[in-house]
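Q: What would this chain look like folded?
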Amino acid sequence: MRFPSRPATIAAIAAIAALALGSCGTGEPAGGGTVTLTIAANAISGGKNSETADWIKGWVIPEFERTHPEVKVLFRPSGVDDEQYKTKLALDLKAKGGADVIDLDGIWVGEFAQAGYVRPLADVGGPGVESWEGWSRIPQAVQGLGIFDGRKYGLPQGTDGRVLFYNKALFRKAGLPEEWSPASWQDIIDAGVRLKASGVPVPIQINAGTAMGEATTMQGVLPLLAGAGAEIYSQDKWTGASRALKDVLGFYQRVYGGGLGDPRLQQEAKGRDKSFTAFARGEIAILAEGDYFWRSVIEPTAGVAPMKDRDQVVGYTRIPAREPGAGIRGQDHASMSGGAVRVLNPFSANPRLAWELLAFMHSAEATKAQAAGQARISSRTDVNDEVLADDPMLRYVAEEVLPITAYRPGLAVYPQVSALLQEATAAVVAGRSVEEAAAGYEAKLAELVGGAARVAH
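A: My prediction, written as structure tokens:
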């Protein structure tokens, strides 16, 4: 689900708690001794996330009930704006009601955890949680989507990864290798210089500025920050005008101040969409994006900006760290991922059975059924090995990118921090110095998060 720009915070939701729905009685015994479990998701047949709704109703429920004859499973669909869905969940959980198994955007996990609306899976589901077979099939980095303060709160659903896409034909014209694997930011700049000399209109597109919104942060700033050895939030502090952040802004300065990117594109309301079209036309050589770009934007037949020769012309490679070993966890490369998780309702009347249902929904069999023959990255390596066999790009992300990825902090203030990062990149693209842009960012950050003590320098 897409992360909105102005989220409803848990604090705001609490202020209208008087409007909360009464407890829905999760897991209440039904007639004849049958136990009822419920699943909630922002999905509805024929509407939003229709495929998910159809999978839950047509596969999950009948298959689980077949092996659990004492259980009746009900689905509570929604088809609303993400913020409306978030508000309803918070109100339900505040009233100690709601479904037993709940779909939650990964970016909300920390906020819901801090409010006490969700608890670690093992605390709710019992000892069977840690012994679940699926943990060994989900890379540790992917598990991070559902982890907050070191505890597992949710099981990750499908996820994604960020890479550098590049045009092999333009690389060949510039005398660059078609199988490109930059080992540092300098390698990217060097390639950009050669591409510019060969006549490419826009050698490098790294999203910047406020018009690009969260795409600036997620496709540009945060992967680069991870490649400089830092995360935006760590150990209860937000990254301020640190060396890592200045390195990131310095990279933006080299791209846009050096004529390797188009500053005007970063200021246009539909700049990101225009960057997609320009890449498809061969006017942009290097583009930092998520795998969505491959499977939905330049997809040869039904893409937003289809490239009939995509499989022959478009290359992809991991985003390098500033230099080898400089990334978080000592990595040579970095990425960012997003996605949804499923959590257990801590107020479920049947938490052990609820865990069995949740684990079943994330089994290999269920995950393959949800894919329904489509090539989409799941959280499970065993499923990816099978369903991505015919798509080398998505397989590359699953095997090479997800193990090194990172996630945005699931805290209510994050979107406002993201906006400050966007402003900082806009300042650099507009010609302000790195020092000035970093200092302005940190001053606003400290005011936003509660003072300088909450900022890492």
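The CA atoms of residues 126 and 352 lie 7 Å apart.
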